[in-house]
Amino acid sequence: MNIVLLSGGSGKRLWPLSNEVRSKQFLKLLSDEQGNHESMVQRVYRQIVQAGIEAKIVVATSATQVEAIRGQLQNDVDIVVEPERRNTFPAILLAAVYLETQKKVDPDETVIVLPVDPFVDVAYFETFKEMDAKVQEGSADIVLMGIKPSYPSEKYGYIIQKEQGIVTGFKEKPDATTAANLIESGALWNGGVFAFRLRYLMQIADEHLKQVGNGKRDFWNVVKNYAQLKKNSFDYEVVEQADSLAVVLYNGSWKDIGTWNTLTEEMEKESIGDVIMGEDCINTHVINELSIPVVALGTKDLVIAAGQDGILVSDKHKSSYIKPYVENLSNRPMYEERRWGEYKVYDYSQYSDGTRSITKHITINAGCAQEYEVHRYKDEVITVANGSGELVIDGCLIKFSCGDTISIKRGQKHGIRAFQDMQLISVQIGEDITEEDAETFNWHWQEDKSL
Amino acid sequence: MNIVLLSGGSGKRLWPLSNEVRSKQFLKLLSDEQGNHESMVQRVYRQIVQAGIEAKIVVATSATQVEAIRGQLQNDVDIVVEPERRNTFPAILLAAVYLETQKKVDPDETVIVLPVDPFVDVAYFETFKEMDAKVQEGSADIVLMGIKPSYPSEKYGYIIQKEQGIVTGFKEKPDATTAANLIESGALWNGGVFAFRLRYLMQIADEHLKQVGNGKRDFWNVVKNYAQLKKNSFDYEVVEQADSLAVVLYNGSWKDIGTWNTLTEEMEKESIGDVIMGEDCINTHVINELSIPVVALGTKDLVIAAGQDGILVSDKHKSSYIKPYVENLSNRPMYEERRWGEYKVYDYSQYSDGTRSITKHITINAGCAQEYEVHRYKDEVITVANGSGELVIDGCLIKFSCGDTISIKRGQKHGIRAFQDMQLISVQIGEDITEEDAETFNWHWQEDKSL
Predict the structure, then answer these.
(1) Cβ–Cβ gap B298/A318 under 8 Å
(2) From residue B293, how far is each of A9, A313, B411 by CA, in Å?
(3) How far apart are CA B417 and CA A441, in angstroms?
């Protein structure tokens, strides 16, 4: 079995913790069975393993999420980077071609596609075995997962089945009466989980790739000519065109925890981080990622979220209306997870003479190394607040440790490797202090006995 | 006329904006007539001037407040530093001896003592003229200000007058019925404003100083032996022992704005700083001193205050119960106004190897200079993010400007003077990174043509 996880877009609905590079699925606000914080991505991966599913896992996502996925799932998954955001059809096609041409997956194997962030029981993933069996016995082109509806929702799509397991149609977002009738007649919610033989999608891919690039079903051809693929959803482009569709029931918890209101319902504790709750707080959740304390007194039905990007104080029921208020806020990420560690921004200033400066706290994990890169428009001064490591600057190696400071001028190639966990304070000064002003080069670190 | 402003203790009731070095009277949350933010101290000073009072003004306070007062009132006032906190009697005695022996004030002049933070009308200060006249005509040893009660408060002290203006007694915090009866019979609230001839207090001082130090009524003798003075309030030690007391009526607004609830009532706008208020917010005030935005959605009866020390989200009526929740929080100031500018702390970390680091953003105003000082237990790396100035290090002068970095080792004397406004990022690393690890030396900056 092969699993394709679709890791979707950047959302502002969980502002200030989610941003352009940190989608909601990477926020570590849930708890695993040992009570450790985990993100939605980590939860889904853990549940797949717990369900006893043995599968190759590929995450289809955009380049901005690669570092976060590597940081959270290490090398347990393959990552396929969508060259641009073009809806689910091209993304799934890209991932499937990757499986076939790069991973040499047998075309008769099952591929199951799902979103990366369903909040579900382990039983959800156990259902995959049944879906796989149905695909392998050839009972339908595509096997869907149908979720047992718990109320006549107007927000979801419904899968209509004639008799048990045979899909005859779909209904998107019906009104409440229609929804109730649909449920009465056995319709299920459509959870966006699709299973099919890899061979089936390859046939469709061939059709679509005829006019694309060199016309070949080749991974790099798809990558290079991704912009020519139809910007359509997999539902419309594939599922609704299939000759035969089957459905397998999942009768368990299934939630979208995309707003603060729904997310806080699933939090094990009422607070995360440095938080003091007065005894009179009622139905209040506080998530604090800052290094200063949050004190809540006498609050009711509130969510308080504090992060490097800002501070939200919202009535829980109003929290889903956040988007227009934060849409126009600066998009500069103030916190990023990277494969070598993380950084947070302390300060970001523009001065009257037009220069800008940014002050960051950078953590490089022991044994990890930053990119070897060059900035064109900014100088950088780095002070080692803790730990030790080595700096390569224009090809020269310098060991440095706690208390040392290094001045790197624009145009100088540089990279840092940590021997022990390193805490760095970096001040960048220049006209352009965005993350985009960085050109990377290859650098092969020598093996080091001290690591 | 001479005015002694008593600038009282550090309060945590306006946490996170007030702290050990930044008492509530220094928070710039009020608005002057042009709509500019001003602090309670600045407001009182402005009102004294507006009332047409011509007086020498002395602020009696602790050493921790000197920098903030100089920053907010410049050299418009004298400051008398209480060697330790010992209640109002020794503080007023010290200030009065300062007026007589250091400022050579005529002993027949009137001295009016008041707390630095009454929230009142200008008419309050106009009353001073009447008090001065009463003192000068010799109608009583001490003339008090009596505030027209607006309700039978159980929190205040009452001044009982037999006939108009002649004080016969006091009543502290009566129950509501007693308070109503007192008001009925003409009693007034005691606002803690005392007027007397300097000569009168000098006689009392002589009594008290007989056994203190060299027994002389000399400013430096009082300073040196301050710990021997009676730790008592001026009310008990002087006012209640006086042979004759008069009272002058102030019939106007008089408030204690020492809690978030009372303070926000006096704020001109519902928010200060980078704040986005959703349209559904009701009776919500937000004060944000951080550089990241605060977004409030659907909140009701809330005060939200965000500063370098932390973030408070409180029901307005519960905000006065804050003390026990914040009492044990770190006392390290995260923001300080200094006479040369200000600093804020971005980060304060302790590492597993026992070393600590602190990262600060320091602003030195053009033409101003920091202390010439030495640290014994910490090294410091300073990066100039903007502006230019000069550094003196062990007696050597170095000009430095935007992008430069300086490494100062423990034991090296150093000081910085700004030519233009300077923005510095300072990283201090060591075992002791408190503000106390600083020994100052004299340094005479050469006159500089560029200033």
Answers:
(1) yes
(2) 23, 11, 40
(3) 41
